[in-house]
Design a protein that fits this description.
510 residues, Cyt_P450_CS, 12 strands, Cyt_P450
């Protein structure tokens, strides 16, 4: 009898709990919907959102379609803005260039915080340069700037060319087997080796490079995964990979300090950085002051990782789109080949010098148009640290994630913006880089504008110059092959498949 009574009591409790749980879920759903609509205000957006998850499933399933839908909403409404909900966070998509500029110009503690990824602090760690503000941020950028001086860029150019040519040789050997050769992954591998060589130079052993590549791949996968920070999930593996990468790069900084202290000549980015850092450390010691901020080895390793992340996938995207554009526009390809041939020959046995790179004005215009026409990092997420009045009629609520769309800005203002037209940056009578500067946001704007944009454009120019000189290529065109997909930056849907064969009589070697 006692057992029957206990069972009966448990069943009564369970029966009573069911309507309570249903009521609690319904209440949570109602509160979340009301909160979403209060924050959304007059903005276009879905009338109802999935509890907590919001639109994260369609975003992960098809990022291109998801962000295209946001842009279409913002455009149809005429507001230049659209709202949605992702994993418990209210988001605002910004299509209008001037509103994007307002966000970029107001990165400060009481306005917007650049985050680089919706869950960037968890993924990158707090060491990241993009999370800094004010004088601390300005001071660090001042100390980083010499890493991209003309002298430094000239040093990097020779390293870049050796790596590019080594990989082009492998591509040609691989294509000898016949069939189209998708270059996205090979470009990514080439760029990772380029970044390792340019940024950390002689301080990475072959084994360290192999582990580095494995960890960076884990990081890339985690960028596009559900943000579940638990063992066994891609996001957790990405976090662990970043920690190992930062430690490795911190060790490179330590070794560079020792070599620069012994009077070595700079051979890579970390050398240029440590050369000036050591001088500042010694000046502080002589004056009886503590070492300057941000000179710790592992902290520097974190900043070097920031550069590597910025250079890696964005550059992969641009190289793929450059090859596709050159194939689609034979007149542009012919002009690039002629300009490069007038300055450099594959048979010369010498790398292209910095002076010759600067003289390739048309090829530079092509590089800028590639970046405008297909900006690799299409969105630059920020979080509102405080409520911010973005327009006369809309205030971004505190905690909202805003997504200024660099991609949408690239197609505003520019005449015939959908056309791939390097003349817009080459012809003196047009100067669209000046006239529509506020719409050219591929490298950001404001206090966090990309420090390495000259390096990035130089890399694209060098790749195109070498590629068109040593390779004959033909794009394998299939329906939708050039549709942009997120990997995590945008790339052609088919991975930019091409047929390759050697063009020059003697493959360059220097």
């Amino acid at each position: 009898m006692a057992a029957d009574s206990l069972l009966s009591g448990l069943l009564d409790i369970r029966a009573a709990a069911v309507p309570f749980l249903v009521a609690a879920v319904a209440f949570y759903f109602l509160v979340e919907q009301l909160s979403y609509h209060r924050k959304k205000g007059p903005l276009p957006g879905p009338p109802l959102v999935v509890p907590f998850l919001g639109s994260v499933a369609p975003m992960i399933r098809d990022p291109t379609a998801f962000w295209d839908a946001q842009a279409a909403r913002a455009k149809r409404s005429g507001a230049g803005l659209a709202a949605d909900f992702l994993v418990g966070r209210f988001i605002v998509f910004i299509r209008d260039s001037e509103l994007s500029q307002r966000v970029f110009a107001n990165v400060r503690p009481d306005a917007f915080h650049l985050i680089g990824h919706p869950f960037g602090k968890k993924l990158f760690g707090d060491h990241n340069l993009i999370y800094m503000f004010g004088e601390e941020h300005k001071d660090l950028r001042r100390r980083i700037a010499p890493n991209f001086s003309p002298r430094a860029l000239s040093t990097y150019a020779a390293l870049q060319q050796r790596v590019i040519l080594a990989h082009l040789r492998r591509w040609l050997d691989a294509d000898c087997e016949g069939g189209a050769f998708p270059i996205r992954v090979p470009c990514r591998d080439m760029n990772l080796e380029t970044s390792q060589t340019v940024f950390a130079g002689p301080y990475l052993s072959e084994e360290a490079r192999r582990r580095f590549a494995e960890d960076y791949n884990l990081f890339n996968v985690g960028l596009m995964a559900m943000p579940v920070d638990l063992p066994g999930f891609a996001f957790r593996r990405a976090r662990q990979g970043v920690a190992r990468l930062v430690r490795t790069l911190g060790e490179c900084a330590r070794e560079s300090k020792a070599r620069m202290r012994a009077g070595g000549e700079p051979e890579c980015l970390v050398d240029f950085w440590m050369q000036d850092t050591l001088r500042e450390i010694e000046e502080a010691a002589a004056a009886g002051r503590p070492p300057p901020a941000h000179t710790d080895d592992e902290e520097i390793g974190g900043f070097v990782f920031d550069f590597l992340f910025a250079a890696q996938d964005a550059s992969t995207s641009s190289l793929c789109w450059a090859v596709s554009a050159l194939d689609s526009h034979p007149e542009v390809l012919a002009r690039v080949r002629a300009e490069v041939a007038a300055a450099w020959s594959p048979e010369s046995g010498e790398p292209i010098t910095a002076e010759k790179i600067q003289g390739m004005r048309y090829t530079q215009a092509v590089a800028r148009e590639v970046v405008r026409h297909r900006p690799p990092a299409t969105l630059v997420p920020h979080i509102a640290g405080e409520a911010f009045q973005l327009t006369e009629w809309y205030t971004v609520p505190k905690g909202a994630i805003v997504f200024p769309s660099v991609y949408e800005s690239s197609f505003q203002g520019f005449p015939d913006a959908e056309a791939f037209d390097p003349e817009r940056f080459f012809c003196e009578s047009r100067r669209e880089d000046v006239a529509f500067k506020r719409n050219f946001l591929a490298f950001g704007a404001g206090p966090h504008q990309c420090l390495g944009q000259r390096y990035a454009l130089n890399h694209l120019v060098l790749f195109m110059a070498l590629f068109v000189s040593v390779v004959d290529f033909r794009r394998e065109r299939t329906p939708g092959c050039d549709d942009p997909v997120y990997m995590p930056t945008i790339v052609p849907k088919d991975g930019c498949a091409v047929h390759l064969k050697q063009r020059c009589a003697k493959f360059p070697s220097f």
